[in-house]
Amino acid sequence: MNTGNEHIKLEKKKEIGTITLNRSEARNALNRKMIQELGDVLTGLENDPQIRSIIITGNKDFCAGADIKEMNAIKPEEIEIFCRWGHKVINQIENMSKPVIAAINGFAMGGGCELALACDIRIAGESAKFGQPEVNLGLIPGFGGTQRLSRLVGVGKAKEMILTGRILNAKEAESIGLVNAVVKDVEVMTKAEEIVQSIAQKSPLAVKMAKALINENQEIGKGLEREIALFAQCFATQDRLEGINAFLEKRKPKFKGI
Ligand code: CO8
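# octanoyl-coenzyme A complex -> structure
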């Protein structure tokens, strides 16, 4: 289905809405336009009575995080607004009244991993790779990762991922509970569809209430607010300038802690 969007494709089949992140030249990095389009498409699916469940997927890659080049052009005094707006769309995924499954191939990094964390269930292909590499940029996760990752995989593993920026393969991600299942790359969508079809047999009301209750119990709001504030603080440092410049110049950063 053509939504008129540039970076987000939407297909509606039976009662499933499939969102495909579609900016492969930048490994599906999330720029402003893409985030806006994602939010709009999610709103449309929430309000569509024909749709019972949603799958979010990529193409070769799931998503390499926020668009670093675009982010670098934002003034430090404006970053908090941008971060808060990104949170709004990621929270929108988590708070959809319908189940949302992430079907992941290739890289799910930074904001891409955080987008997957906001989904209800994650299915990974064997090629999938997960990481919160923001420390390499002199930053912290800024789309909810400091809060959702530890709730999913435990504090120890979350700290390891966020403090070292290490990239995990699909099997490791499964072993710590970051993904629900790993299948062959070509079977990721089939597996995700199987799961949504199984949920679609159940009472939509019961599914909606159970999801809302589990989310409520996470008590995530205060931590997300702190994340926005500290992301903005990090963004104003020389280390962030060094980290992002090093990424763009394809070299190792030299951090000074200022
Ligand atoms: N942003 C912009 N461009 C990207 C990104 C990105 N996140 N990731 C990859 N690209 C681009 C590369 O620059 C490259 O472009 P070009 O061909 O013009 O040089 C192209 O995609 C292909 O990438 P690589 O050549 O780097 O491919 P590799 O296979 O060598 O590496 C990696 C793949 C490991 C995924 C590597 O691209 C990488 O490390 N990417 C960055 C991952 C990252 O650090 N993500 C975190 C970003 S920060 C974030 O997400 C915080 C979210 C909260 C933000 C809050 C907003 C205020």
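# post-check
The two ends are 49 Å apart (CA to CA).
The chain has one domain: 1-186+203-258.
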